[in-house]
Structures are given as structure tokens and as C-alpha cells.
């Protein structure tokens, strides 16, 4: 299974990207499956908090599976992509924590920034390489400037340059560095599961993210138009 989920103690849902042989790059099946997992997490009252991580030593997520897109001659629909990102289409009023390590590229960064809290290994390597393949990251183009400002978002997304975990921490893109981000994320999830088990906490998250969610919904057609106009799909740089 490309996406695995498991409910552990204190209502923590562990969600893993499970294609380590592909650096956890997300194919169409993975994106559809993620959307299903977010729906389950949103609706099941036993789920109090969520931890997202990547299996294997090399990557959290190296982005979309460009090889599959080349073979199919297309990328996934905007609707499938939107549903694969937590909280974009439908609010999830439970804390979502991303544990990042290794290659965190393109859609991997997009997944992370649509979580609520990001814990990264100090040697995590970030970038938005889509620009080098004639592609774009439509949802991140809306969300990233809200987190780190327009100027820095333009720099990262138009150049596709690599950036470090320490830079990400200084910009507020990452909340915490840890040598064992998964362990730290689970520990935080346990704490949050206890501390925010109330309707007030859920509504607080809802209100904090309300403007971002409205923006994403408002510009959904623009994102779809931009993605549709980009037709080039080329092999990724590894």
C-alpha cells in the first residue's frame, strides 16, 4: 500500500508515505489514497491528532512521480491534487504534524506546508524543482507567501533553488529541528491530543486557517487553468 495509516495510543493517527524505493514520490494512486485518509481522519472521532511522515532513510517525499506522469502524458486532476493536501478542500479541525527528513521536494513541501506544525531533521533538503521541468506547484503558490512572504516565495519557486532546514526554521516554514523528527512529532501529537481535546481548539484552528482556505477555494479555477496550460512533463533531476 502506497499510503499507510495506523491509529495508535492517545488518538494519534500515523500516516506514512510508503514508497521508499521511489523516495516516497507520489503517484496517482497515492494522491487519491491520501484524500481518502484525510476524510477518515476528519470524520472519525477516535482520531485526535495526525502525524505525517515518509518511510525509509532517504526522503520524506521527493514530490510527484514524474515518471508516471511521463508515461501517462498527463498529471492528476486539480481536484485529486487538492484532496491529497490536508485541509485544502475540507477543513480538518485536528492538529496535523509533519515529520520531515531527507529529500522534501515539490509536492513534498506542499504536503508539509498544509500541515499545522513541521518538525524537520537538521539535514532535510528542500526545494520546489517543478520550474526546471516546466511544471508548477499551484496550491503552494497561494499558501507559501502567506507563510514566508511574497519575495521569498518568488525566490524559491521561480529559481527552484535548494534551501536548508536551518533556513526554513529562520523563515518560520519549519517550527522545530530534531535529530529524530518522527519521535518528536509523535511526542508533540500526544501533548496536543491531550491539550486541545475541546471544541474550542477545533474552532480556533478553523478560524486561523479560514482566510487561507477561502483563498485556495476562491482561486481553485485559476490554479486549474494554470495547471492545464502547463503541458510539459520531463524527467526529474535526482
UniProtKB/TrEMBL annotation:
<protein>
    <submittedName>
        <fullName>Enoyl-CoA hydratase/isomerase family protein</fullName>
    </submittedName>
</protein>
<comment type="similarity">
    <text>Belongs to the enoyl-CoA hydratase/isomerase family.</text>
</comment>
<dbReference type="InterPro" id="IPR001753">
    <property type="entry name" value="Enoyl-CoA_hydra/iso"/>
</dbReference>
<dbReference type="InterPro" id="IPR029045">
    <property type="entry name" value="ClpP/crotonase-like_dom_sf"/>
</dbReference>
<dbReference type="Pfam" id="PF00378">
    <property type="entry name" value="ECH_1"/>
</dbReference>
Amino acid at each position: 500500500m502506497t499510503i499507510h495509516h495506523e491509529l495508535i495510543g492517545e488518538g494519534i493517527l500515523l500516516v506514512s508515505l510508503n514508497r521508499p524505493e521511489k523516495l516516497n514520490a507520489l503517484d496517482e494512486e497515492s494522491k487519491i489514497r491520501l484524500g481518502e485518509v484525510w476524510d477518515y481522519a476528519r470524520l472519525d472521532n477516535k482520531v485526535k491528532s495526525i502525524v505525517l511522515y515518509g518511510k525509509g532513510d532517504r526522503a520524506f517525499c521527493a514530490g510527484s512521480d514524474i515518471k508516471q506522469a511521463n508515461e501517462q502524458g498527463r498529471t492528476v486532476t486539480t481536484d485529486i491534487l487538492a484532496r491529497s493536501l490536508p485541509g485544502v478542500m475540507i477543513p480538518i479541525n485536528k492538529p496535523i504534524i509533519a515529520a520531515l527528513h531527507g529529500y522534501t521536494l515539490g509536492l513534498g513541501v506542499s504536503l508539509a506546508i498544509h500541515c499545522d506544525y513541521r518538525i524537520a531533521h537538521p539535514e532535510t533538503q528542500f526545494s520546489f524543482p517543478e520550474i526546471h521541468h516546466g511544471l508548477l506547484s499551484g496550491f503552494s503558490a497561494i499558501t507559501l507567501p502567506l507563510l514566508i512572504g511574497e519575495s521569498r516565495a518568488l525566490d524559491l519557486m521561480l529559481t527552484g533553488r535548494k534551501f536548508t532546514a536551518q533556513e526554513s526554521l529562520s523563515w518560520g516554514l519549519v517550527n522545530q529541528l530534531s535529530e529524530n523528527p518522527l519521535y518528536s512529532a509523535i511526542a508533540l501529537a500526544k501533548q496536543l491530543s491531550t491539550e486541545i481535546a475541546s471544541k474550542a481548539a477545533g474552532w480556533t484552528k478553523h478560524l486561523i486557517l479560514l482566510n487561507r482556505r477561502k483563498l485556495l477555494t476562491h482561486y481553485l479555477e485559476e490554479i486549474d487553468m494554470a495547471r492545464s496550460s502547463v503541458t510539459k512533463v520531463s524527467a526529474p533531476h535526482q
